[in-house]
Amino acid sequence: MSLEALRGALGADAVQEHPEASLDGVPVPASVRPSDADALAEALRVLSQSDAAAIVRGAGSGLAFGNPPRRADVWLSTEHLSDVDVLDADEGVAHAQAGAPLAELRLRAASVGWDLPIEAPDEAATLGGALARAALGPRVHRFGPPRDHVLGLGVALASGERTRCGGRVVKNVTGYDLAKLHVGGCGTLGVIESAWLRLRPLPETSLLLSAWIDGADAGFRHAARIAELPAVRALALVDPHLAGRVDASGPESGQWLAVVELAGAEPEVKRAREGLGLAGAVEHGPELMARLRGVQCGPPPESGLRFRLVVQPARIVAAAVPLARAGAALLGYPGAGFLFAGFPLHAAADSNLVDSAWRAVREAARAGGGSALLESAPGWAKSAGDVFGEPCEATPLFRALKQQFDPRGTLNPGRFAGGL
Amino acid sequence: MSPDPQLTDALAAIVGRDACLWRPEELFVYECDGLTLHSATPAAVVLPRDAEEVSRVVKACRARGVPFVPRGAGTGLSGGAVALEGGVVIECSRMDAVLELCPEERWARVQPGVVNAHLSDVARPQQLYYAPDPSSQLACTIGGNVAENSGGPHTLKHGTTTNHVLALQLVLPDGDVMRLGSAAGWAPGYDLVGAVVGSEGTLGVVTEATVRLTPLPEAVETLLGIFPDVVTACRAVGAMIRGGLVPAALEIVDRRTIEAVEASVYAAGLPTDAGAVLIVELDGAREAVDQDVHRVKKLCAEDGAARVELARDEAERQRFWRARKGAFGAMGRLAPDLYVHDAVVPRTKLPEVIAEVCAIGDRHGLKLSNVFHAGDGNLHPNISFDRRDEDELARVVKAGEEILRTCVAAGGVITGEHGIGTEKQDYMGLLFDEADLDAMRRLRAAFDPDGVCNPGKIFPTTRFCRESDPKARGYERVPL
User: Fold this and answer.
1) In CATH, what number is assigned to the domain containing residue A355?
2) Same domain? A285 vs A355
3) What is the edge-to-edge ordering of all strands in the sheet holding B44-46?
4) Angle formed at CA B231 by CA B226 and CA B236, multiple of 5 degrees
5) Contacts of B185 in chain A (CB under 8 A)
6) B45: helix, coil or strand?
7) Which of residues A265, A295, A325 is at a domain's end?
8) Is the pLDDT confidence value at B465 over 70?
9) What is the pLDDT of residue A389?
10) Please, which residues bridge with residue B370 across strands?
11) Stated pTM of the model
12) Which of A53, A204, B60, B479 has its CA at a distance of 20 to 30 angstroms from the CA of residue A257?
């Protein structure tokens, strides 16, 4: 496309060319950085009218997630939309623009006594990016998915119209809950420009612990008991391949690392600490949580495959054990039913390895009564199939939604489930 | 209006003669839901037994160009279950089976006609319950709860229906049957479960829901704060939210409601000279609950409570709740009709908004009382009136509009749990502009491009454009 129309609409500074850039092997020759929400909408209007395609990005930390784009003309960045304009300590809600980094939002919320219940493995991630891909972290155990904390959204549609859904109040059934479509919609139905969030009270106290456990079976059984304690805010199991990157004190051969974060009222946390039953548990500072998130991030896409499985928690061991046997490096959030399975790749494009990894992952997801997707992989490895897994029966509805919201295929074309 | 015999024959052939109603005396009960001011007579009512019958009913309606409306127990309060335009009501009460209970994974798969409270009864032996508890939970059904994204007193901590639905089976408006979501809580693609919950039966007919069950808490404590007036009670609520407390429930009952309750069969022994009572329920780990009980007592005392009582046992706890849950029934003593309003404001705005709501009632000379989910900022101003008095009816409508405008001006919304239905569709413009509404229409069009599934709801119409004129809103069609 001609970039002149974009420069004319947004100013020359908002558009940069970089002929060498690409995503999954598809060139993305320019970047657009709108200065505010109106400029974002205007950029979309121009792109849509030009039949151009935009790859929407925040900090870029989640770009490995998604199918290869069918086409791409520009990166459309929300990085300049980074205001946190409401932190209502009396109400426990916040309003921030999509480009606000999660880490900053978390710090600012904490400074007024509130906890941000939205996480991403990479805390450099922006709020918009984390919501668009429904990111999660170890505290998913307590907080659940990000959809549950979004009160309202500002969304720029592909047509350039600015829209709102939801509101700032904590209970609301006024009209359709469109926010549910945009959270996890990977920016394929609209670009999140801002969000109202419900915050949670900071706990009176918290405690971060780790302990070594012999084997997957014992680890998951023990984790299931720990998961029952109301004081648990985060619960992770890390397999022997990865455990040393979280806690360098071990491991002995074959040992898994359990990480437990307790948070709440002091007496509750104290009782939970006594009831954990974790022999040799060691207390840690927040850096352990950062390392755990780092393990969830996994290695760079070019060096391996990383799958995310969501299974039914009581069946997680049925999914984890065969995956471990297939050589996957595993991180689990067992109370919430999440498993992250990594398969290292050799330098050469080994499609057999990709196929066998997918087979193992699909089998594990079935055994766990859930599903799986390929979160991160080099572009060539995504040709084995849809990174969102097998098509589901709702695919015709997904297609109808895409047609309604983005008929010209302006937003991240090809990147979503079913190649939408 | 006489029924189309071809339509009723086709429907009866699907569901059986005993499950297809078309005589005027049979249809009468389906003319309205809990919002008795809006009514319309359906062409027919069917009571299917499963998804296959629902699918065939939908296809039969489609073949004849007849719209259809899913209906649960009819306890909704926004007109959502009323069949406009002579449509067919698909009443789900015969689909009332708990199909599967999985205590290990904490979910249940149920048909839409399962009564909300019945599900908790079934789950309780497994130390589990279904958390969303609308006030009508002894009658309302899971299908209706899904349609309206129902809340209840305990949503402050435990969330509304949308936070508890994992998967759905839906008969689409073209009659196809589709499964959405997963018992694991996540499925690839757009979150269509999230989009369908709260869509007021306009995107299809829910024929199965897989819902999350919640472990019974280790400890529950219930407190009753006695306050001199409702505004002071609201200030205490604000102090609790500001202080980081997340009680399971924070409910306010005002003086007029207390008087009605105490004069009724629901009498709970509340002090009738109290300006308002605040019910605070705390649940969770024993230590945390004990600690929070002290904090609640302290905050209530600091914020003007005359006294705070802690329920000594389950019987006393039930007594406290009787004052809250019996409120709507007790209102029947005040007047023949009750308009239950529903709006939400930021909790910080509660004191000034509740004062203004009361002033609106007074200005219009109405019997307005308040019983509401204060912790969520979810107001329920209740106006007792007599619809036969046209002047009073006009004032009820006018006051309702002023209440909604007041709430929106305070940063709030026009419904927290009752839905838009036909009641508030013409007030959608207070919150959303045409682009916002058009985005909602896009979702509607993806599911129901022909607009045959529960038409005439949610979106503004020109029909009710003169919202302050009761006759323009169709009230003259209401049977007296």
Assistant:
1) 3.30.70.2740
2) no
3) B20-21, B44-46, B88-91, B68-71
4) 60
5) 145, 310, 336-337
6) strand
7) A295
8) no
9) 94
10) B381
11) 0.96
12) A204
Give domain status of residue A50, yes or no.
yes
Q: Is B17 on the interface with A (CB under 8 A)?
A: no
State the nearest Cα–Cα gap between A99 and chain B, in angstroms: 22
Domain ranges, residue A187: 84-201
**Nearest CB to B443; choose among A90, A178, A184:** A178
Asked if residue A185 and residue A105 are part of one domain, the reply reads yes
- Looking at the fold, whether A127 and A157 belong to one and the same domain comes out as yes
Last residue of a domain, one of A261, A295, A329: A295
The predicted complex's ipTM stands at 0.97
Same domain, A132 and A215: no
Please tell me the total count of domains within chain A: 4
Helix-, strand-, coil-residue percentages of chain A, each rounded to 5? 35, 25, 40
pLDDT in the model for residue B1: 57
Kindly list the residues from chain A whose CB atom is less than 8 angstroms away from the CB atom of residue B163. Answer: 144, 148
- For chain B, the residue count is 480
B367 neighbors B334 (Cβ within 8 angstroms): yes
B100 CB near a chain A CB, below 8 Å?
Answer: no
Sign of CA dihedral A42, A47, A48, A54: negative
CB contact at 8 A, A282 and A343:
no
Domain assignment present for A407: no
pLDDT digit of tens for each residue in chain A (420 aa)? 779 999 999 999 999 999 999 999 999 999 999 999 999 999 999 999 999 999 999 999 999 999 999 999 999 999 999 999 999 999 999 999 999 999 999 999 999 999 999 999 998 999 999 999 999 999 999 999 999 999 999 999 999 999 999 999 999 999 999 999 999 999 999 999 999 999 999 999 999 999 999 989 999 999 999 999 999 999 999 999 999 999 988 766 789 999 999 999 999 999 999 999 998 899 999 999 999 999 999 888 888 999 999 999 999 999 999 999 999 999 999 999 999 999 998 767 788 999 999 999 999 999 999 999 999 999 999 988 899 998 899 999 999 999 999 999 999 999 999 999
Residue B473 confidence (pLDDT) above 70:
no
Closest residue in B to A180 (Cα–Cα): B194
What's the gap in Å between the CA of A188 and the closest CA on chain B? 10
pLDDT tens digits along B299-333:
999 999 999 999 999 999 999 998 888 888 888 88
User: Nearest-CA distance from B202 to chain A in Å?
Assistant: 10
Domains of chain B: 5-91 (3.30.43.10), 98-215 (3.30.465.10), 219-331 (3.30.70.2190), 434-480 (no CATH)
Q: Which helix (H) or strand (E) holds A290?
A: helix A287-297
Tell me the helix, strand and coil percentages in chain B, rounded to 5: 40, 20, 40
**Whether residue A181 sits in one domain with residue A104:** yes
Residues A59, A17 share a domain? yes
Contact B105 A177 (CB under 8 A): no
- Evaluated on CA atoms B221, B226, B230, B235, the torsion sign reads negative
